[in-house]
Amino acid sequence: xxxxxxxxxxxxxxxxxxxxxxxxxxxxxxxxxxxxxxxxxxxxxxxxxxxxxxxxxxxxxxxxxxxxxxxxxxxxxxxxxxxxxxxxxxxxxxxxxxxxxxxxxxxxxxxxxxxxxxxxxxxxxxxxxxxxxxxxxxxxxxxxxxxxxxxxxxxxxxxxxxxxxxxxxxxxxxxxxxxxxxxxxxxxxxxxxxxxxxxxxxxxxxxxxxxxxxxxxxxxxxxxxxxxxxxxxxxxxxxxxxxxxxxxxxxxxxxxxxxxxxxxxxxxxxxxxxxxxxxxxxxxxxxxxxxxxxxxxxxxxxxxxxxxxxxxxxxxxxxxxxxxxxxxxxxxxxxxxxxxxxxx
Length: 344
Ligand SMILES: C[S@@+](CC[C@H](N)C(=O)[O-])C[C@H]1O[C@@H](n2cnc3c(N)ncnc32)[C@H](O)[C@@H]1O
Known about the structure:
binds S-adenosylmethionine; 8 strands; Rossmann fold; 12% strand; 344 residues; 15 helices; alpha/beta
């Protein structure tokens, strides 16, 4: 099938307008849907849907906890641990903060990102600085999956950081996962300066725009970063970050696919016979369009910086990303085909 025919087929079968558009351009989709949120159009729509379906206001954290408990029973999990993916084997609690628990237990969580996580684990970073760590899926996960990397984590929510401490302790990793403040670019700068070759991993619901201020945190120019962007909360942030880091970093984009876009994993098929029920378990309940950007510094501090393509070739899952030499002109959005993040 030609590439165009495949895109058209993907668009035909995608279940929502947002995901149809993602096959044309993830960046354009993020911008359009960010605008939709900014104009406040989603609120009246969800109020109408709630009224029509007879449901009251949206689900509470307690509703999510009950739903997770039901799903854990349905899956027949007697021991809570991550069942697949980069953090396979990590012990888990029956809690998660601001994100879906079950996909984390299944190891399907943010599948689009797993290639980059595998590459990061193999790339020789001396530290992983995780801002917006929630209960620590990535912070504790990196310490779990890597024998020596130092992990520094921060979250503005103390509920989240309490959960992170619990998760680290469950895995005996409390000595390798440290909490430190990174509320401002100045605090972030002092963290970055401590390491030769840190990876900065950021998911902060739109605050990435203010936090990743390269004038007030100049060490960002030398750091590699994986950043989830939130145009729905902070319209235009994806574009602004790309432009901001264009002089100092090469970048790639991934994201936009959800559980429905992947074949059902065997760990789910084996446990749940009904495919619709199985897909529901994989859902990450994402309302807004979210993308991830990976920025790789064009220059770096570390002599140890040897993680060019050769190092990446050694990773467990082959990267779906093709790094390209950056063109000299400013970037323009391109279509990211299914299964291949766009890169510049
Ligand atoms: C969607 S959650 C992150 C989920 C996490 N990436 C995971 O996969 O488990 C976003 C987190 O960012 C935190 N947050 C929001 N603004 C922040 C900021 N300015 N600095 C640090 N954390 C922030 C929230 O408290 C929340 O825990």
